[in-house]
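User: Batch of two.

Assistant: Item 1 of 2:
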Amino acid sequence: MRTIHVQHPIKKTIQDNSEPCVMALGFFDGVHLGHQEIIKTAKTIADQKNLKLAVMTFFPHPSTVIKKGNQITRYITPLSVKERMFEKLGVDLLYVTAFDMNVAAVPHKEFVDDYLHGLKCRHAVAGFDYTYGFKGKGNMAQLNLDADGRFGVTTVEKLEKYHQKVSSTLLRQLITTGRVEHIPSYLGSRYEIQGILCRQGHQYRIYIDNDYLLPSPGSYEVTLKSGTLITKGMCEVKSGGAPGELTLHTFYDLPFDDDTPVQMLWENFIADYDMDAFHAQLPFDELELSM
C-alpha cells in the first residue's frame, strides 16, 4: 500500500501521478464493521473494474479544527495503526488529507473536483451519513450531483447490531465507560492497543502511542500477544497517569523479553480504580462524557 499525504491546495503533481481508482471515503476511526463494509464494497467494485482500491481519510479529526461539539483528540485507531489495518483489507492507495481551516472552507463542488475527480476517482463509496465540503453541505445525494457523470457513486446503508447503529461514536462510549467486553460485537474484534512492554521491578509498563483513546479509570483483564506468545494480565488505567504509559500485572510468569512489541486486547472491566467525572459501566443515557 502506498500512502500519499495531501495538503490544501492539492498539488497538481499529486493529481498527475494519481492512478484511476475506486475510492472509499470516511474518517474510519476504529475501522469497525461498518467501515469494513464500506471498504469491502469498494474493493468488490475495484476488482470488477480492474482499478486500484483507494481510501481517503483526514487527519486530525475535523472536530479539533472546527471546534463544534465534542473535540476528538484521542483515537480508537491512531493513524499509523489505521494504515496497517487498511493494508490488511487490500487497500492499494491511502490518501491522508491534512484537515485544517483551509480544507474546512472548501465548497462541496470544489472538493469533488479537486480531491475526487482530480485524483482520478472512477467510483466513490461511502456510508449513508458521509458529509463533505464547507459546513458539511455535501452529502451522498449531493455527491451524485457533484460527480456530474464523471464517476459512479455507491452508498453503503446503516449497519445495526442489537438495535444499535455501528459507529465510532458508539465504540467511544463503550471504551470511555469501561464496557470493553461489548466492543467485539461492533468492532469485529477485541479493542486492541499496540505498544512496547518493559519490566519495572515486579510489574510492567506498556508504552503506547499517546493518541490512543483509553478506557475509563479502573482495572481491566487483558490479553497480551507477541507473535505466537500469549498471556493474561491486569492493566490499570489511572486518571492523571503519565501520558503514553500503562501499568500491567501478569497472572503468570511473563514469557516475553523486555522491550518487546506487544498487542494488548481489552477483555473485561474488573473494578474501579479512581472515581472520575463519571462511573464506569453506567448505561449510556446516564453518562456525562467528556471527550
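Item 2 of 2:
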Amino acid sequence: MNSEKVVDAKGLACPMPIVKTKKAMDELESGQILEIHTTDKGSKNDLTAWAKSGGHELLKTEEDNVFKFWIKKG
C-alpha cells in the first residue's frame, strides 16, 4: 500500500507512537495515507481508537515483529 509519509516509532513506548503519529498526520492533506511502524503492543488499541476519534480511517494493519498501520487522513 502506498503512503505519503512513514512514521518510525519502533522502540518507543506509549504515548510516543501516538504523539509522533499526530504530528505527522498534521502535515498531511485530507485523503493522504500515513504509515506507522511501532513495536509497542499497546499501539494496536491506541492507534485504532485514535484514528476513529480523530475522524481518520484505519485502512490496514500488519503484525510481524513490527506492528504496521496505514491510516487515511479524514
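Residues 5-72 form a domain with the Translation Initiation Factor IF3 fold (CATH 3.30.110.40).
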